[in-house]
Specification:
With about 300 residues, this protein is an alpha/beta fold. The chain is built from twelve helices and eight strands. The chain has an eight-stranded parallel beta barrel, surrounded by seven helices. Helix 6 (about 125-135) links the parallel strand 4 and strand 5. The protein is elongated and about 85 Å long. The protein starts with 8 loop residues before the first helix and ends in a 16-residue tail after the last helix.
Length: about 300
């Protein structure tokens, strides 16, 4: 496929207005992107969650622009239909409008993303405006915003008081007014998300925000059961690949150590006459190991 086959913003908006749910997932490399695209995902988010799922960091905060660009390039090379959104990592837009615009351009021009995503409202709105003025689509993100979770002191759900729910509601409206094409609602009560979705003309994408959003997003490793330890309440595991992969790797180790792999079906051969010529050429060097089953000694 070519880039012209990608889903467009008008098509995504039409899906929401017609009540057709938008399916979104994170992906971080060509393999996951290809599978997501083949499965029919509408949006692939190259999330800064790669910090914990792929890069071994304890949070998303250490993820750099260079790391995100590398991951985004890998995804855009493999995607045909899905709309690709790149997460702007911590530090890529907080310093100001110029830095935000410069990094957003890198995501689109150098990595092939269709849009970028920024967390929060407030001062983030001016960064979003600068990016939009350059013609780059922006997805917003309110509720639990992992890049600033330390300010709140936890990664717990947001919007569980009237005041906090109103704050998130107002932030979502502000993102729409600024020009975002969609907004992610993370870890907020379903009732609050429903009111936000009703109030906005742009699509809402929920993650831990109930079923009334216009779409849903989950992290690749969470939904496939690749995450070990605690996962958030909103995560549904659609597979247990952690167990499947471990079983396969343990069987591989066992067969290698037991000399059961590789067998003849996984081995290349050589014509007898060519083997004889080869062995004549190396005569005198054989017999150094007793494990060679082809040795005539």
């Amino acid at each position: 496929m070519t880039d012209t086959d990608r889903l467009t913003l008008p098509e995504l908006a039409a899906m929401a207005s017609q009540g057709r749910r938008i399916a979104m997932v994170t992906a971080y490399d060509a393999t996951s992107a290809r599978l997501a695209d083949t499965a029919g995902l509408d949006i692939v988010l190259v999330g800064d969650s790669a910090g914990t799922t792929m890069l071994g960091y304890e949070s998303t905060l250490p993820v750099s622009m260079d790391e995100m660009l590398l991951l985004t390039r890998s995804v855009t090379r493999a995607v045909g239909r899905a709309f690709v959104v790149a997460d702007m990592p911590f530090g890529a837009y907080q310093p100001g409008e110029d830095e935000a615009l410069r990094n957003a351009i890198r995501f689109v021009k150098d990595a092939g993303a269709d849009a970028v995503k920024l967390e929060g409202a407030g001062r983030t709105l001016t960064r979003i405006s600068a990016i939009l003025d350059a013609g780059i689509p922006v997805m917003g993100h309110v509720g639990l915003t992992p890049q600033s979770a330390s300010l709140a002191g936890s990664y717990k759900a947001r919007g569980r008081t009237a005041a906090d729910a109103r704050r998130i509601f107002d932030e979502a409206l502000a993102l729409e007014r600024t020009g975002c094409f969609a907004v992610v609602l993370e870890a907020i009560p379903a009732q609050v998300a429903a009111h936000i979705t009703e109030a906005l003309k742009i699509p809402t994408i929920g993650i831990g925000a109930g079923a009334w959003c216009d779409g849903q997003v989950l992290v690749w490793h969470d939904l496939l059961g690749l995450t070990s330890g605690h996962v958030a309440r909103f995560v549904k595991r659609y597979a247990d690949l952690n167990t499947t992969i471990l079983d396969a790797l343990r069987l591989y180790v066992s067969e290698v150590k037991g000399a059961a792999f590789p067998d003849d079906s996984h081995t290349y051969g050589i014509p007898d006459e060519e083997l004889a010529r080869f062995e004549a050429q190396i005569a005198g060097t054989l017999g150094r190991k007793s494990t060679n089953p082809f040795s005539k000694s």
